[in-house]
Amino acid sequence: MPRGSKDKYTEKQKDKAEQIERSYERKGVPENEAEARAWATVNKQSGGGNRQGGSGKKKSAEAKQESRSSSAKRAAASRKGVPRADSLERETKDELMKKARSRNISGRSTMRKQELIEALKKAS
């Protein structure tokens, strides 16, 4: 088993890891590698074990879904060969506004979509 105790994981997380592990094993991945990949996937999707009083920011279900959707759109654009800078045009104004806010771009509230794209390109 990969490092660390799995005691703090929920049953749902443990079941998910088992299912992922079996899927990898069916594809011919060695058992220990399959298990490591499965737990890495569970950790990435759920943020690790069900810890009491954990620190850090907690995202709402809506915010998580929005992040997944945005990430999926960027991944699809990358698969089609669209460079990352061009993928900004594919994002909504709200998504661009959030990026501008996170990069602390001044004047963002009055910018149009194209102005936000240009400001984000400059800030990169």
TrEMBL record:
Positions of the Rho termination factor-like N-terminal domain: 88-123
Pfam families referenced in this protein's UniProt entry, alphabetically: Rho_N
Biased composition (Basic and acidic residues): 1-36, 86-98, 112-124
Gene3D superfamilies attached to this UniProt entry: 1.10.720.10
Residue ranges with Low complexity bias: 68-80
Region (Disordered) location: 1-124
Superkingdom: Bacteria
Gly residues composition-biased segments: 46-55
GO terms (BP aspect): DNA-templated transcription termination
Name the record gives this protein: Termination factor Rho
